[in-house]
Amino acid sequence: MSGIVGLWHFDGRPVERRRVVRMTETLSHRGPDAQGSWVGESVGLGHRMLETTPEAAAETQPLTGRGGDLAITADARIDNRDDLIGALRLEERFASPITDSEVILGAYKKWGASCPEHLVGAYAFIIWDRAERRLVCVRDHLGIKPLFYHKGDDGFVAGSELKALFASSMVPRRINEERVAEHLVVAPGDAESTFYENVFHVPPAHVITVSPDSIWKTRYWTLDAGRELQLGSEDAYAEALREQFLEAVECRLRSSHPIGSTLSGGLDSSSIACAARDMMRDANRGPLHTFSLVFPSFSGEEKEKIDERAYMDEVLATGGFEPQFIQGDRHSPLAHLDEMLAHVDQAFWAPNLYLHWQMYSAAEERGVRVFLDGLDGDGTISRGFQYLAELLVDGDMGTFDEQITALAERYDAPRERTARHHAYPVLEALVHSNSVQFAARALSLSQRFDISLREIVSGVWLREVLPAWVQRRLFRGSDEPSTEAVTERSLIQQDMARTFDLTEGDLRENSRDGVLQAHRKAHAQSFPGNAYPEVLNVADKASAAFGLEARYPFFDRRLIELSVSFPATTKLRDGWPRYIFRRAMENILPDAVQWRRRKARLGANFVQTLLDEDATTIEDLLRRNASSLSGYVDAGEMELLRSARRTEAPKAPFSLYTLAVLAAWMEEMAR
User: What is the full DSSP assignment across 160-229?
Assistant: First the structure.
């Protein structure tokens, strides 16, 4: 974890070092161990260092190349560094130990701006190339490391966090109304925009090359959806996946400080924790610190949904861990909202951030600097449900029937309900693409699963083709507003929604785009996606607040590429989602965790603590910022939401949270 900044005056004015230092000092929380700055003519670079790897202790940044033609500031962990050091013969040019920034600079000298094609890891870096008179900004494949930028008529500025850009005095703080609109409808937007006009993320897997006259973007990596790996047996697939997963964990254990990991008792965090524990124990480096959320105040049915303590205990019983438990029910979503906004610098939608905030705080107290996180193993490995959509689209109803039946039996769910859950989104998409195919699939579904055609027509076709006001009359008997509408209608002013194509119809149309795709194409196109960069940006800012570097084994590029290439039949089999990964974790995970069926649902704690502990905070925020919100939020819908509360509208708490975060950010903007 580091903080980086870059500044260039296009008119040739010298950069004042104090300006670079001022920008860099805003990132002191990202790098308390060292600070550096470099100024060359009209360009300046800055760096804050958090030492997390053994090599970082010998690192001085910004780093300049021999002759002074190149300068780099980097927030980077290069996982294939050993291969690159040999291939680039860096031992001849740099003293041992060779740092990650030296590896990047060596790669740039050989391959220029295409060097990220050869890098594996998590990185954001800025390189000044004096010979070419260009500034090169790069972000890793998935956007794990953040990098923001602004280009004006007189110059360019970039940095790890938005606050560094604003400290340059070159970047105006103006609200980006389109991003506010997307926030209100919980749409991820694109991978570049921020809540500020003319301030952008460097997109994941992109190089941005800047000159005084132009700025152009080059994408250097895209997942290959056409590659299918053909291995001889199920065992071969499991072994290949196991080997790559273990490598993804091992390269993230390069640390000069204690290592921590989430441990929820789920498949993802447990796999990472067990694999890391084994490797650390073999290297006499243990124990592994684990951080787990528990909710002792819950009981009965709600406890069954949220409590994972039994699975945590299964993992911990295997030894080699230093566990810590955090009572999640003692904390509320908005308790640290001001601190969160101060680090994220813009509004966000992260309902479970308050729980990670507590885990990060506990990790800091333990002296942990590297924090392993099992974020989105479902996305990387794929649960395989897109295979069901593919079978339905192709008309392979026999195999679809077999898979649905196995899935229903595995999860003790009614077969008809399971079929509806997986078939209806496909049928909705077919309504808009092929009405003949819709009719054929609807008839087959009705015959095989004892679902009436009348239900399918009313539940799918009519809802897709009839206007909303007609639906309300047909399905609710009235077009008068009710608290039920809060679960279906947006808070955004409708004029604004139409301006930015964020009406309900547009959003539903966009959500259908991937439903009819083949499983591998849908899997590949989810990376890096638009949601991942925003999630990772918020996680980066939250972990940085506590002096941590969050590392994500499931976001290893090589592991993603391998997983996408697997046949669909390895991902969903015999009613088991992520089947081949479960097989791969044989003798790594306890059986009870390896073959557990359901995941915990943390929503109940969110709702309870938000409405019980944060009610006054929400009311005060909405009251104080009513005039600021009025330009974006429908006043009637907001009042309806505030009165609906918990019982009448299940989604009301999440919408209240969305409004509260926006109101708090807008209040900060007005100061």
Answer: SSHHHHHTTT-----B-HHHHHHHHTT----SSB-SBTT-EEPPTTEEEEE-SS-EEEEE-----TT---
